[in-house]
Amino acid sequence: MNKEAKKFDAERFKRQFFDFCNNLSFDSKEFGQLRLTKKNMLGTQLYFIDEVVKGLEDGIHTFVVLKGRQVAITTICLALDLFWIGKNEGVSGAFVTHNEEAREMFRATLSQYLEGLPQKWAIPIKAHNKTQLLTEKKRNRIMYLVAGTRKNSKLGKGTALTFCHLTEVSEYGDEEGLASLRAAFAQRNPTRLFIYETTAQGFNHFYDTWNDAKISSTQKAIFIGWWRNHLYTKKTGSKEYQVYWDGKLLPEERKWVGEVKRLYGFEIADEQIAWWRWNLAEETKDDMLMYQNFPPTEDYAFVKSGSSFFNGSKINDRFKELKKGEKPKLYRFVLRDNFEQTELIECGEKMANFRVWEPPQPDAHYVIGADPAEGNSAWADRFCIQVYRCYSDSLVQVAEFNTADCLTYQFAWVLCYLGGAYTSEKASTCMLNLELNGPGNAVWTEVLNLKRLALASSYEIGKKIYKVVSNLSHYMYKRQDSFGSPSGWHTISTTREKWRMFSTFKDGFERGVIEVSSPEILEEMRSVEFEDGFIGAPDRKKDDRVVATGLATIAWADYVRIKMVRMRLSRYSPLDEVGPRTLQFNMATYLKDKIAK
Questions:
Q1: Do 363 and 378 meet the contact criterion of CB atoms below 8 Å apart?
Q2: Which segments of the chain have a pLDDT < 50?
Q3: What's the predicted TM-score (pTM) here?
């Protein structure tokens, strides 16, 4: 605990805060106007205050709150805001809402709070209008800011803030404007306090804010589950309880009830399950919307209702498995002006652009999916290669190359290196499927030129390069509704073809046939949506890894899987034991040795 934290008296702070709240009146949803006494506070509100106080005690002044709907966090936050302003001097702050209507509701609640304060806690106000709140004494000034749901890059410019309460952050339309506001936040002032609180709205900028807070040493992430609200119950003996509680949990309920117990130490009661089922059946009437509005855990909160393509629950399950699994070996392709000057070096996570979960195995078969930058969409600014090991009954990710720092011809070189690494010198055991949209044709031309130049070269290096790429086979495109022969090399991702790629990948993933090793692919899968014929990551979200995996998947499904069936090569055949799966393997040395042969 740092020196600043030692000065903080947690018990005294809570005692004063609850005394302050005793004087505040608010309009409750269920019981009309009430005093904000501790007795009238919801479990969600008491938990929030406890977590904030623990954070302040540890010297933390930034709190990121992920909540369900109707858990009264904004109400208690506003009380904390006023208490903080009355307690400290020289506060320069801001209340930030997503629209003007919310700002007016914000301001009305604060006015109601201020009117009920006795002399002991009175905060003399000099001005209170739709732009700011000024106090007469302690030199405190709080601005009302509207972030908006569209671009607002001027948000917070020209300000220096020691206090900020941002509500419904996930609704803000401009992450650059939010970043501009954050730049105004004080970093050392002992009276600083910054609170972000919101429900989730899919995998947008707040998803990144939440994940950053979870790993930060200077921020605290607080999840407020619906089950902390004691009003969300249907009492034993009530009509709803009799209808909706049958004495046992459904499989999906059993899973998240167990997760709540494991993650938060909270045991959900049968009366709460009755409420959940009643609300789902008679109020919300949509599974995905229910999970978004009333998430049992933080993972469920980010499932966007109505348009998510991949099953969020399946993604969460795979995330948990990866946390327990082996970590990849990390490398960096160092790309220069000539193919033969390319190097592969071991490195740390920040510098890595190539990861290996399983090294190349003798006589194993592979597919490679490759999506060059801007091949899939204008916002796809990364070059991506996915390598999967093939069986008759499964597809397993073994390596991934992903970077924005690459040129088209260098991407072709990496493809050739990996094609050489993952194919046998005796037979074609690796198939490449390349996205030809955008710069994909230039990549394909470079691959062909490299092979031709190497074949025509009389120098030893040319012969070595030819050996690297000669056995790499290439995907042949064929219309699925045609009886004819294949009509071209690789894939051009039309809307129709993209639907097939993603659907084949989705089916394999959710049945457990396709095994993803990269957490980043799972993150991108969460962003993929479908609506009005569109499928992919909307706006500026990324799906490069998903597209590359889709390309690898259809290469396996259309060609390689049939070959594996004929060879009777299943996942758990004796061939799977050929070559040890060991982290002692060095990919860089392997490539050098293979070229040198």
A1: no
A2: 1-5, 306, 375-379, 574-584
A3: 0.64
